[in-house]
Amino acid sequence: MVEAKAVVGVVTFTDPRDTGLATEREAYLHAKHQSLTKFLRGSQIRVIDPMSKLRKGWTEKDMFGLRTKGEVEEAARVLKTGGAECLILGCWHWTEPMLPIMLVRELDLPVLLYAEHNPAWAGSTCLSSTGASFWENAANDNMLRHQRLQGRPEKVLPWVRGVSAASKLARGSLLLWGASYCLRMEHLQDDLPRLKSFMVGEFLMEEQHALVRRAEKIMEQGKRIERMVSWLRKLGCRIEFDNRMLTQESLRREVALYLAAKDDLADKMAGGEAIMGASIRCQPELSVDYGVTPCLIPALIPYPEDCEGPKPTVPVVCEGDVKGLVTCALLHQMNPKSPPLFGDLKYVDDNLMIISNCGAASIYYSGLSRRACDCLPDVWIKGQVQGASGGAVGFYSKPSDVTVARLVRIDGEYWMQFGRGHIVRITDEIRDKIVWGKMWPNTPIQISAPRDLLISAVGSNHYSASPGDLTGEIEAFCRFHSISKVRLDSETELQAFVDNL
Fold first, then answer.
1. Rounded CA gap, 406 and 447, in Å?
2. Domain containing residue 140: CATH number
């Protein structure tokens, strides 16, 4: 999977009439357009700019903004060819609203109307007239749900990343190794045809036996397994055999399952599948029937390198959790440099939640680094407390600001639960509260919510997180899909949510 940047088209319009101050106006439009595109590119956004083709060789004596139907049609062709996922329309000064209507009607992409907060030019007039015309025309949902912003270009970035993530997810595939759901957890299931109708491009189903077959062949060769174990040890990972759950043989089988999953993903991607996340069911087919927990899969598949070199980062969730998989894929598209964290909501207290997956989570969080040499020294592999055998891949997450999120469904209606939090260091007090699953990865997150209210509102025992503040991106995604939302870090919103259930 290529960790692609968000792709946005930027178009500027102008007044089709011959008016005074045209030279000054077009120079202003050109300057604002160039400033915005430069800012976006500097923020790691890929920009499709039809103006660079339509106005190649522009001078201050020329018209810069689009002003005819033919120019709008040519801009639409450039944007389609470039693969724009969303549009920013520069409404810096007056234009006839039908021109932007033509473009959005043709492309049907999420759209943001943008202008400077500048009283010298009629940006407010253009924003309001174009926005009102979108509502009046309403040729598609993107017109109805368009966004408007005046000044503050930094506010553009969450919107671009949020709607771009929605676009990528709607074209991508999510892979389920094994069925949903596990351990008869009803909420891990979902309506897959409904999700495919508006949110996810495709769900790929593959029995876990396919991984077992690959793993058995890898074990026959042996060399890749030996390299992998040597690499883990060399970079500082502590492997603690107990001659019961974690043995030389169970570790070999666990490594083989990881390499099998990695190879399976590589084959599917080579065949053209844009896989944005995977789920491993695990229990009981692998953990009991095959006899080993596959914990290296959620630990290392969502990581950019292993002993064989760089590789795609693919979010992984456990137990056939469909909504958890959608959430992790979404967070990763919004923040592609950091794999998402996934795990069980193990403990809740006032202003604190501990996420601790039952065997592994991405080792990225042990060091907040894309270099394994920075992360593995703080990672251990110890015998599991469940299944027939196998090792849990554990660590204590490094402190960081994070966004916690979870897509949930209540009586058929989707909700997004999300909020800002902060991973804190494991204190002796917190460590003493961890009895079950000491060998697992543990992530204590401070979040502004009373215990009783939070536990009454959470929509799953599984939650995901990603570094930084992605709340603006999630807001844009929810608005784009008309999904209800509730902030986990807002006592007011949590109380209203619980009261209205």
1. 15
2. 3.40.50.1070
Average pLDDT over residues 283-297: 97
Q: Are residues 289 and 200 in the same domain?
A: yes
Ramachandran bin of 178, using left for φ above 0, alpha for ψ from -120 to 50, beta for the remaining angles = left
Residues 84 and 184 in one domain: no
**Can you say whether the dihedral through the CA atoms of 260, 264, 270, 274 is positive or negative?**
negative
Residue with tokens 């810096």: 92
Average pLDDT on 167-173 reads 97
CA atoms of 362 and 424, how far apart (whole Å):
17
CA pair distance 324, 167, nearest whole angstrom:
18
Average pLDDT over residues 341-346: 96
Instruction: Write down how long the chain is.
Output: 501
CA pair distance 155, 150, nearest whole angstrom: 9
HSE of 92, CA atoms in CB hemisphere, 13 A: 22
Q: Is residue 163 part of a domain?
A: no
Q: What is the number of structural domains in the chain?
A: 2
Which domain range does residue 462 map to?
172-499
**Whose CA is closest to 343, among 331, 360, 326?**
360
Residue owning tokens 């944007």: 79
